[in-house]
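Continuing from the previous page...

OK, I double-checked the sequence for Malonyl-[acyl-carrier protein] O-methyltransferase against my notes and this is the correct one:
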Amino acid sequence: MSSDAEAEFRLDTRRVRRAFDRVAAGYETRAVLQRTVEAHCLARLDLVRLAPQSILDLGCGPGVAGRALLKRYRGAQVTGIDFAPAMLRVARQRRRWFSAQRFVCADAQALPLAADSVDLVFSNLTVQWCNDPAAVLAEAWRVLRPGGLFMFTSLGPDTLKELRNAWRAADGATHVSAFIDMHDLGDALGRAGFEQPVLDVERFCLTYPDVHALAADLKAIGAGNVTAGRRRQLTGRAAWSAMEAAYEPFRSDGRLPATYEVIYAHAWKPLVPRRHDPAAAQPVTFHPARRRRP
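Thanks. Re-ran it with the corrected sequence; updated structure tokens here:
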């Protein structure tokens, strides 16, 4: 991606934070796909041998995953970090008395945690909201103890491809974020120092009666257009109508599809950290994509 394209797709962090703050109260019930992906990611912990005492729930939102992690790992301490203050207020309200769950407002790209202090970093659909994913991976590696696990999900480049293509045909402006390819993410894990990275993709298809319903759903989960390359003025009726017309060829069985490409990934911090060499290749395991409806 060229430097101009990178600038165009760069996220406006303040707008991202405000968007999540606005939807915090109802996020847990409206974010159906996010909860589904979270459940699938949590289930993958069954496949690893791990007894963490200290867990980081990175991008914790209203704290749902953290509560599930406490049930799974009795006696563990869970720290939830999110950069949206309203999300953390909701999480604190729903925390049980005497729960071993604490919350900190911070940026995933600069964690306020000591090095080698966490056994498990769990992160659901957070990496794609960061302008510097490499910094997120580096921070996860830094705070993990040797032998610790980083398990996370992110969105791949086919996410909202129908909406992206429809807007491109309508006005050519940036309306949908760019997302990292699974293979690039696997390479980035190796460069960050992780070992045995395993990644696979699952594609979900949500359907809507019309584009207005899709837009309302995205707004309700804080996933509006927050790219730096967005148009500053309101989208005109002509551009919106052109986008609707361009979306119509995707209609199937009377419904408009919205594709989400979800990347599942996990990797380990080595017991003996290897000498950092950005050029050193690490073997990465990729699995074929699966499709499902949430």
